């Protein structure tokens, strides 16, 4: 029996439900290695197999209250409606997830909660993008043009993702220890104030550290003129922090327990702490780090099932429920959709739908400096 016939029989067993997707991919992957086979029939059959598996879609997100909101308000109702299971995983950083995708098999990862247009551009540049059939996602009509345009600019007018929410990484502080007036006076410089040594936190993410290093030295984060000053500010912050936090859950715990008094933080997580009654304030200093998140579909995924899920998640009732659960404004245009009472009170919410007052990272600028800056931050983080 030739290898192509063997693959066709494996594919038939898979389509009949005798093999799950993971087992099927493992079998054809192992067989191809033993036969010294690459590309050709194997790659074609993998794509056929993945396209024929609408029984499940994998989604990876940020965990915590965000994933809880997705599961409760989107994934479970979607499964009940369609019979398609959403298998959800989590990650702590964009770099961590990208490494998983690089190490995985095509089609193993389907949709993920990408942070920023620069993340989207990274995946596109690596060839992991798809072209979504927008006719299968009619609810895109409700999405802000200001959020869609940056993604279309990266992929020649097409989309490999749909915008889903937005927010800011602003300054979170304990209002029993730091006044609103002091916070507004010092802005990002408070993160390098020796007065709060041992009570300062920070996310151990190179982009965030450089962004806030730029703000602390009165520079435009999208056009930094003095990187030496930024690295010095990052070193000063490093020497004052209690610890770098690595997840939204850890951020919330450090603030809620009073272990730290001030840190930059994600607007939705801070809103959740405020709703829980903790004495935490939030301040978006000028040029605070604004971001837009999208749901990006990766190469090799079952496209129609993914498009159906994306459309379901953009259904206004679903999107609003998720937004209220995760405390980030949705991508829905507030001039087209009535968003209820809670969403307009969330940090970073823009009632105009134009987002003109938010400062987003320039994809070309940040991706162009990633190799050098991420390496240097690793050295500074270790004491250089």
Query: Roughly what percent helix?
Result: 40-55%
Number of strands: 10
CA-to-CA gap between the ends?
60 Å
Class by alpha and beta content:
alpha/beta
String of helices and strands:
HHHEHEHEHHEHEHHEHEHEEHHEH
The tally of helices reads 15
Poorly predicted runs of 5 or more residues: 30-43, 45-53
The CATH architecture of the largest domain can be named as: 3-Layer(aba) Sandwich
The averaged pLDDT comes out at: 89
CATH domain class of the largest domain: Alpha Beta
| CATH fold call of the largest domain | D-Maltodextrin-Binding Protein, domain 2
CATH homology superfamily of the largest domain = Periplasmic binding protein-like II
Query: Rg from C-alpha positions?
Result: 22 Å
Q: DSSP strand (E) fraction?
A: 15-25%
Major sheet description: 8 strands, mixed
> Quick one: overall form?
globular
The total tally of domains equals 3
Name the descriptors.
two-stranded parallel sheet, D-Maltodextrin-Binding Protein, domain 2, 15 helices, single chain, alpha/beta
What does this 3D model show about the protein?
With 384 residues, the protein is α/β, with parallel strands linked by helices. It folds into three domains: 3-51; 56-166 and 291-355, 3-Layer(aba) Sandwich (D-Maltodextrin-Binding Protein, domain 2); 170-288 and 363-381, Periplasmic binding protein-like II (D-Maltodextrin-Binding Protein, domain 2). 47% of the residues lie in helices and 16% in strands. The chain has helices spanning 3-15, 21-35, 40-51, 64-82, 94-103, 117-125, 145-154, 180-186, 206-216, 227-240, 248-256, 267-275, 303-314, 316-326, 363-381, and strands at residues 56-61, 85-90, 111-115, 161-174, 200-203, 241-245, 262-266, 280-283, 289-297, 359-360. Strands 1, 2, 3, 4, 7, 8, 9 and 10 form an eight-stranded mixed beta sheet that branches. A two-stranded parallel ribbon has the order 5-6. Helix 1 (3-15) packs parallel to helix 3 and helix 9 crosses helix 15. The N and C termini lie far apart (60 Å).
């Amino acid at each position: 029996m030739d290898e192509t016939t063997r693959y066709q029989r494996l594919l038939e067993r898979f389509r009949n439900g005798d093999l799950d997707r993971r087992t099927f991919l493992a079998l054809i992957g192992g067989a191809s290695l033993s036969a010294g086979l690459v590309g050709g029939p194997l790659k074609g059959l993998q794509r056929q197999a993945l396209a024929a598996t609408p029984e499940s879609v994998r989604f990876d997100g940020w965990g915590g209250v965000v994933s809880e909101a997705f599961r409760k308000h989107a994934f479970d109702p979607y499964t009940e409606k369609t019979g398609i299971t959403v298998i959800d995983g989590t990650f702590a950083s964009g770099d961590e997830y990208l490494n998983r995708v690089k190490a995985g098999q095509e089609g193993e990862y389907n949709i993920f909660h990408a942070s920023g247009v620069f993340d989207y551009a990274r995946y596109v540049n690596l060839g992991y993008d798809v072209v979504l059939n927008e006719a299968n996602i009619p609810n895109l009509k409700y999405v802000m043009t200001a959020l869609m345009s940056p993604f279309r600019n990266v992929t020649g007018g097409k989309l490999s993702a749909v915008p889903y929410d937005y927010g800011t990484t602003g300054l979170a502080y304990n209002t029993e220890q730091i006044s609103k007036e002091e916070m507004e006076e010092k802005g990002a410089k408070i993160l390098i104030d020796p007065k709060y040594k041992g009570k300062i936190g920070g996310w151990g993410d190179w982009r965030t550290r450089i962004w806030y290093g730029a703000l602390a030295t009165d520079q435009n984060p999208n056009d930094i003129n003095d990187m030496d000053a930024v690295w010095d500010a990052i070193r000063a912050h490093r020497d004052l922090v209690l610890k770098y936090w690595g997840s939204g859950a850890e951020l919330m715990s450090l603030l809620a327990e009073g272990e730290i008094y001030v840190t930059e933080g994600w607007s939705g997580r801070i809103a959740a702490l405020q709703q829980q009654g903790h004495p935490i304030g939030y301040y978006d200093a000028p040029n605070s780090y604004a971001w837009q998140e999208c749901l990006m579909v990766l190469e090799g995924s079952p496209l129609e099932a993914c498009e159906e899920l994306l459309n379901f998640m953009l259904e206004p009732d679903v999107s609003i429920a998720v937004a209220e659960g995760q405390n980030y404004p949705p991508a829905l245009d507030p001039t087209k959709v009535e968003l209820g009472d809670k969403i307009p009170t969330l940090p970073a919410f823009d009632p105009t739908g134009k987002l003109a007052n938010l400062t987003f990272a320039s994809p070309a600028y940040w991706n162009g400096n990633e190799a050098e800056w991420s390496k240097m931050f690793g050295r500074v983080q270790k004491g250089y």
